[in-house]
Specification:
alpha+beta; Double Stranded RNA Binding Domain; hpI Integrase, Chain A; four-stranded antiparallel beta sheet; three-stranded antiparallel beta sheet; 16 helices
Length: 394
Amino acid sequence: MHLSDLAVRKAKPEDKPFKLSDGGGLYLLVRPNGAKLWRLKYRFAEKEKLLSFGPYPITSLADARRKRDEAKKLLAVGTDPSAQKKLDAVTAAAKASNTFGSIVGEVLSNKEQSGNAGTTLKKNRWLLEHLAAPLADRPIAEITAAEILVLLKHIEKSGRRETARRLRGVIGSVFRYAIVTLRATHDPTIPTHGALLAPKVEHRAAITDERRLGALMLAIDEYDGWPSLRAALQFLALTFARPGEVRGATRKEFDLKNAVWRIGAERTKMRRPHEVPLSRQALNVLEDIWPLSEYSELLFPSIRSNRKPLSDNAFNAGLRRMGYMQDEMTAHGFRASASTILHERRFDSQVIEAALGHQDENEIRRAYNRAKYWPERVKLMQDWADLLDSFRAI
């Protein structure tokens, strides 16, 4: 005889536990303390087993019957309902623990152990832990393309189009890591491609007129601020390296005897070693500043501590104090100045690109060009230093 909800509700506890059967192995166990618990008795692999469905009234009679029928379906295909229940519990626990935020922590840790540059790690951490914070507590397997797009569009509407694109890229990298570690099955950033507006290209200001560049070099020569900053700006102009590479330059990177500056892969944008031939003028700058950094590993230490490099903004702040506004010249602009003027003077484009440290997509050709153009690069750097001297005299 099947139970009714009224019978279940009115069942009173007795001195000893007793059962009220509903059929098909399902029964209600009523304990002396008044607890009413649903149980399913069944046989699997010739053994009698018991499965709990939870207490009444949290689990209603209808719910208990539904769970009994689901268990019978599993038995029909040779699956033990108790084993499946434990597996479902483990899966649910793993799903809850595999949040976007926890996997972000693993991704960032892997990047750090792989030797990614500090600047890159700092940017990724800011993007993933700050901007992507709304996703942090979400199970990664449940995150949808729609909620990622809402997040990206919010950033885009604030005017940060490039940031929105970068965020989509790093979020995608987290999902790709989750896929290969078997915690996600797809990357929901893929459907968002094409949904974001193209970034507004803002070219870094650079002086490309030879007379004006000469005037800037004179202003740097006469700069009466921190000596490390003056020398670093002179060296930046002579080598047209990236500002971060110059700021972080260490004394051990320089082979003064052979006039070479060797920058390790961990400090370059392209993540490959880059060697810079040093002109006579660059060596003179190093000779002047070398004694001032005697007690520091850094060649151009900060004014506040010889253990810290010049700050990100030091170069541009120095240019502003010389009277050069942001729309006239930037620290990164020295690369554009050199590239533009050298190209206009018909120097070999491939040699210029090699000197700038631009990456050739073909690995074999990249290695070949690196060796092939070294003598030409040595000459190019000396020619450029001589040109800067001539610009000062215009």
